[in-house]
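[PROTEIN RECORD]
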Amino acid sequence: MAEDSKKLPDLLKESSSSPLPILDWSNPPAGKMSWPELVGMTAEEAEKKIKEEKPELKIHIIPPNSMVTMDYRLERVRIFVDASGKVAQEPQLG
């Protein structure tokens, strides 16, 4: 059993990777952070409108009942759609 514990990685050692960045809300991104007016539009229409305002953003169209990560990214907008392909909830940065 002592030999088995030697095979396990030492989880208490510090990682060589850099720490995750802390979000600094003292300097929020310029412009809109959400688009409530897009609810009910098609995903394509919503994507086009967001890209017109902020072309640098990455748009992700999320089908119904899809799993997504919980990370927060200021360069990303998720567009959650219903079964008919219409925007189901307010798209926002993150």
In short: The first helix runs from residue 2 to 7. The chain is about 20% helix and 15% strand.
